[in-house]
Amino acid sequence: MASYLGAIDQGTTSTRFIIFDHSGRIVASEQREHEQIYPKPGWVEHDPEEIWRRTQEVVAGALEQRALRASDLAAVGITNQRETTILWDRKTGKPAYNAIVWQDTRVAGAVAEFAKQGGQDRFRAQTGLPLTTYFSGFKIHWLLDDIPDLRARAEAGDLLFGNVDTYLVWQLTGGPKGGIHITDVTNASRTQLMNLETLDWDTEILSAFRIPRAMLPSIRSSSEVYGTATESGLKGVTIAGILGDQQAALVGQTCFQPGEAKNTYGTGCFLLMNVGERPVPSKHGLLTTVAYRFGDQPVVYALEGSIAITGALVQWLRDNLGLIESSGDIEALAISVTDNGGIYFVPAFSGLYAPYWKDNARGVIAGLTRYANKGHLARAVLEATAFQTREVLEAMEKDSGIALHSLRTDGGMVENNLLMQFQADILNRPVVRPTIKETTALGAGYAAGLAVGFYKSIDDLRANWSVDHTWHPNLESQKREEMYRLWKKAVTRSFDWVD
Fold it and tell me: In angstroms, rounded to a whole number, what is the distance separating the alpha carbons of residues 157 and 155?
């Protein structure tokens, strides 16, 4: 029997292929970045063909590291940046346009128009989501309305839509030569087109967006045998798991009980809490979303707090200001000072997500004086992530009625000890980092492994989870609340910047 699982982790800035053994340990890993395309302010695009090339490269590279063959993999799972929208030609596989990335704000005008007829919560009862630039529906709507010929091609049945998971599965299973056109419930729940109760595309919403149903993929569970790869060095391997990246991290962190939660620190920050088999509507600015569905078992729902800019702010400090040479340098720069020097940095570069949902907010740096230096700015950059996480966690506790005793963390930024300590300080509760930190890819591997019997049950997955480090709060209550008050004050300064 094959000894390993593979996971394609297609993220906002890079693509990875990770090979895991049965205990969840990484056997091999290969990663490649792809270009971030910014045609106009607020516009963010990727080249789908470049993403497909990078996927093929990382699969080949990881297998080569350990001299493995495709036949050594029991199955492959896929996890992906969510909401990023791709339209491509059914017959040729050629993209009709660049992928429009989840961070893109070009549809803000359409969002405002839709909100005039029913408000920002117009589709929240069906989808769990407010009207915002974030989700795929408005991106499809823009492509069909603003790019010549695309609507006619879509209505003729020549165009396919997919988020990145759908596009990769289609390519892996043959592309124009019989590729499977599917998505899973977690990714479908992020389009603003799927009904949370029926787990099917909502006819009323499709009509409002003027999106032909024929261009949409069929919706499947997160863990089942979908088909067999014919391409990209994985020929003959079963594809058996699909999870949007944040749901994949929830699974990788084995948050299978209602009330268990994780926070992923990546390009953005995403706090998810398992709320069980009934969707919990949010009254405090969170999203109601699908957590996962394994095979024909009942679907499990989550509350989610999405923060647009966290790790991306560190990249901005590196690439746009040149204050650090690599992202890892920020901790040393931040430690060069003892506090933030009174600086608060609200990174509303593409508006504010949870819990505010203000598309017209923009980034601000508040509290600057002549005293401030680059160390203070670096510290404010890290603290912004922790402050935003507290805002989301407070909203989550109000919506769910569940008090979190500790926070499970994962993602690239959890290696930053200063950030993790401050996160514990500002939350006033322990922050836990697991032994296996690549929980997003691991979750996709777990979903695939469950589908093919590599794992017998979720108890096998729980047995793999263990703690690497726990940070305990160590900040005076008065200081904590004063810093949080000033943060909230700075946030209000970002509101309504765009007229």
Answer: 5
**Sign of dihedral through CA atoms 183, 186, 192, 195?**
positive
The closest of 116, 170, 161 to 140, measured between CA atoms, is: 161
- pTM higher than 0.90, yes or no? no
Q: Could you tell me which residues are beta bridge partners of residue 344?
A: 366
pLDDT along the chain (499 residues), means of 10: 91 94 93 93 94 96 94 96 95 96 91 90 92 93 93 92 97 95 97 96 95 96 96 90 95 91 87 92 91 96 89 90 90 94 93 86 95 95 95 92 88 90 95 89 96 94 91 96 97 91
CB-based contacts of 178, cutoff 8 Å, min separation 6: none
Q: Which residues contact 23 (CB under 8 A, 6 or more apart)?
A: 464
Residue 275 burial by Cβ neighbours in a 10 Å radius (0-12, 13-18, 19+): buried
Q: Whole-angstrom distance between the N-terminal and C-terminal Cα of the chain?
A: 61
Cα distance between residue 203 and residue 114, in whole Å? 17
Alpha carbons 36 and 31: distance in angstroms, whole number: 16
Four-CA torsion 218, 240, 199, 295, nearest 10 degrees? 130
Q: How far apart are CA 204 and CA 222, in angstroms?
A: 25
Question: 138 CB contacts (<8 Å, ≥6 apart)?
Answer: 107, 110, 111, 114, 131, 192, 209
Residues 325-355 as b or e (16 or more Cβ within 10 Å = b): eebeebbebbeebeebbebbbbbbbbbbbbb
Residue 334 near residue 418, CB atoms below 8 Å:
yes
